[in-house]
Design brief:
The protein is an alpha+beta fold. The chain has helices spanning 2-16, 42-59, 102-116, 146-150, and strands spanning 63-70, 73-84, 89-90. The chain folds into two domains: 2-96, no CATH class; 106-174, no CATH class. A hairpin with a 2-residue loop joins strand 1 and strand 2 (73-84).
Length: 178
Amino acid sequence: MRGVILAVAVAVAVLSTGSVAAPSPAAGGSPVGARSRATNYAPVIARLSRDIPALMAKSREAGLSIALVDGQRVVWARGFGYGDVAARKRTTADTLFHIGSVAKTFTAAAVMQLVERGLVNLDAPLSRYVPGFSLRPRFRGNVITVRSVLDHHAGIPGTLPRGFITSGRPDPGTWPTW
């Protein structure tokens, strides 16, 4: 799982450094944000191919797979390291990993699509959309909103057996008193 996060972090870092320049409208290219099949991804692919093994070694990752996608087109996909270290099975672009926390990104993207369509209000209580939700906010007077859950500021505690999920009135002794 950490490998997936490492790959995403590397890809975002590479793409945000401007290694791939979009053609400018002034130069006769397509507007910023437009997809172009003529985009040269070779520098990004070269950098990822060089940097990922070093980052994996530094963070002691066994393996990961990564894909560079432009619109609906997979531009490049590759595996690094081992999907099964004990069996010495190399990771490929098709190796499946548990999605883990990456699901949060997909969920946030789906929720934001609903926000754009006017179907979800980011500042509404989460219970409006998930009626069975019954978790007290960490701080008195706060309301857990869609936005606070998406930006990880809801104050949701990490201890399931000590009041994480409540039914009826929560036990007042489950929260820290700092």
